[in-house]
Amino acid sequence: MTATILHLEDSDLDADLIAQRLARTNPEFELVRAVGRADFLARLEADRAFDLILSDHQLPDLDGLEALALARVRRPDVPFVFVSGALGEERAVETLKLGATDYVLKNRPERLGPAIERAIEEARARAEGRRAERAVREANERLALALSAGRSGVFDWLIPEGRVVWSPELEDLYGVPRGSFEGTYASWEARVEPDDAARVGAQVRRCVAERAEDVEYEFRAVRPDGSRRWLAGKAKLLFAPGGEAVRMVGINADIHDRKQLEEQLRAGEESLRHQNVRLSLLADAAEALLAADSDPVQMMADLFAALAPALALSHYFNYAPAADGSGLELVACGGVPSGTADAIRRLDSGQALCGLVASTRKAVIASDIQSSEDPRAQLVKGFGVRAYACHPLIAGDRLLGTLSFGTNTRDRFSDGDVDVLRTVCHYAAMAKERARLAAQATERAERLKEQDRRKDEFLALLAHELRNPLAPLRNGLQVLRLTEGRGDAAKRAREMMERQLTHTVRLIDDLLDVSRISRNKLDLRRSRVSLAEVLESAAETARPLIEEAGHEFAIELPPAPVFLDADLTRLAQVFSNLLTNSAKYTPPGGRIGLRAEVRDGALVVTVRDNGLGIPPDYLPRIFDMFSQADRVVERASGGLGIGLALVKGLVEMHGGNVTAASDGPDQGSAFTVSLPLPGAPTGDAQPLGVPAPAKARPRRVLVVDDNRDAAESLAMLLELLGNEVHVGHDGLEAIELAEQLRPDVILMDVGMPRLNGLEATAQIRTRPWAAPVVIIALTGWGQESDRERTRQAGCNAHLVKPVQLTDLERVLSGAMGT
Question: Rounded CA gap, 704 and 10, in Å?
């Protein structure tokens, strides 16, 4: 149904909600919005036609009843529907008395679409009725004109003589040549529809018997060409003094057009009645679907209960696509004998009528089922179904299944019934899709809620882990102050502070790595590396923790060397994390094993322990971020529980996968990493050399960092190494000091106020004296893209904070050629 609706609503939110609701009900509805009184009056007085006016009841500058009054004056034939958030019963009755067509509460939006459709249909039917009535009046006027212009004729029946005289005009009405009428009652009777002739004859005889003078009747004349035409007769009976009828004088007039219009009017009224029944049925169906609360079985049962009485339905079948996509599975059915449903619980693709509908996505309407020999109709034929309608349930381009209805009381569905069932199936598809989306939204909300909970726990643990090193660091500083940095106590304090600082840096590095992986910002430095070298590095990292717990540790490698196309550091990080994880979660004196083998063209490495194991319900999310199996153990052993998330991300970046297995608590666990192997090796793996630290020669160094403590502490360290050190705290100051000092080396922080380090470097490089100056970028970012940015700005080297002394000496020595 296409319709243009004038919508009077001052609230943008309510207007949008109603527009969305009507778009789902009928996308062919066009809404033209009016906001206030002036806008509404302009719309009413414009030439544009509207099929319905939809109005809020309470508006800032226009009362709803006033809007109704304005509409009744300017658009009296357009239905007017109130939609309001609070319209009491008395107020609602008042609006109807004043001419409103209907009212809908805003908290019952499901009624809005059917109410609008019903109002428009009724208005159109009334308009059609008025047109038909007008046509009847016009026909009567034409009849009067016809009487005066020859569309009527007179007769004179001389009853005792049995002779009938027709005027020439009357012969024209009957379609006989003028002067050819035989002049008898029998001749007239022969030119009239037999049923009508018998009825008129009986009426005349009754009038004669009752001595009634006036006779009026209507009948169908049969013309020579076989066509029928309605005529009206009006006559007067004349009686002799003795009471016998002696004469009947009258007129026949052509009323055929009027009778046709009356028939059309009756047909229109019948059509309107059927449409009202259809709309009421669809409203009941929509209410049943909305009230089912997403239970598919109850949804179909309620829908069938709403439709069955009106359409004489006896059966229904609802199928959905099977999970494996190979056919259909029965969701719900009705009218099927108990115990028989199992036999039809699954249909193959194309099997029976439902399978055909699912495979073609086209409806099937079948009649005379009991006499059908179609193999696909035999299933429903066996249930006594005589007529059958099956429709696909489609949402967008997704097939949700099929819904079919059958009757055992008639052999075919009418066109109107098929329209209702097609619309109902469309409603059912929308209801099922709405239920699916609602379930997805609920699941997503629960998942987000769980992730948020785990994130909160993780942040609390992160705060705890980052605070832990602060106490020993502070204590160590106190020891150094009291001992003036001398003696065994000072030495132990420095070692302890280095351990705590290393632990803190490792936590932050892990966090940064996980963040980079999740944002696809982590770069791998691939090269040809040997498996032995990777595992040796991993074992070296994890061995202190393994030995501290007294674990038995064994490594089993393939007999032949294995080479990988991998980032040695990152891959070693994978296996060190797995070994460290096993060491943490295995009670002292346990067993940890690492076994590597080549299987089906891939490298498979398994780390197995006999530790605490993994609960079965935790295995599916063991690699999730913000997730830990045992908070107590984790807190006791340290760490954030992000190691496995990091493992998964790094393995997948290498094109592999990682899985976890455990028989349950106290049954140990096994983590298996599978990595693709490259082609045949082209040469021996090159060992990674680590340049020996070189003693820095005295040089003039400018340290630039907006963090004053960081700048001062680095300056003190460089001075202890025998350098002349100067300090600046932003980019502009760096340029001024470099101009004054002409330093050998500039250690430049990247992120600074006023002028950042890269911009300051670029400006320094424009000075003639700056060519030999070594500029080293200091930053917390260490990806290849970050290093490329510092190179383009003019930096000779790139160090990631916090800077290790050995790294600083190596870069200084390499840059200065010493």
Answer: 61
Q: Please write down the HEC assignment for all residues of 671-711.
A: EEEEEECCCCCCCCCCCCCCCCCCCCCCCEEEEECCCHHHH
Per-residue pLDDT of 78-93, as tens digits, reads 999 998 876 677 777 8
Its pTM surpasses 0.85: no
State the pLDDT confidence band at 230, using cuts at 50, 70 and 90. very high
Amino acid symbol at 36? G
Q: Region of 585 please: left (phi>0), alpha (psi -120 to 50) or beta.
A: alpha
pLDDT one-digit tens code per residue, 340-350:
888 888 998 88
Q: Identify the burial level of 206 via C-beta atoms within 10 angstroms of its C-beta, where 0-12 means exposed, 13-18 middle and 19 or more buried.
A: exposed
Give 686: exposed, middle or buried? Use CB within 10 Å, 0-12, 13-18, 19+: exposed
User: Is the per-residue pLDDT at 787 higher than 90?
Assistant: no
The answer, yes or no, to whether residue 185 has pLDDT greater than 80, is yes
- Residue 343 neighbours by CB under 8 Å, 6+ apart: none
Closest Cα to residue 808, out of 786, 777, 782? Answer: 777
Cβ neighbour number for residue 758 with a 10 Å cutoff: 21
Number of helices followed by number of strands (H, E) in the chain: 24, 28
Residue count of the chain: 818
Query: Could you read off the pLDDT of 498-532 as tens digits, one per residue?
Result: 877 776 776 677 667 666 666 666 677 889 999 99
Tokens 């429709």 label which residue? 391
d(CA 535, CA 527): 16
CA distance 9 to 431: 28
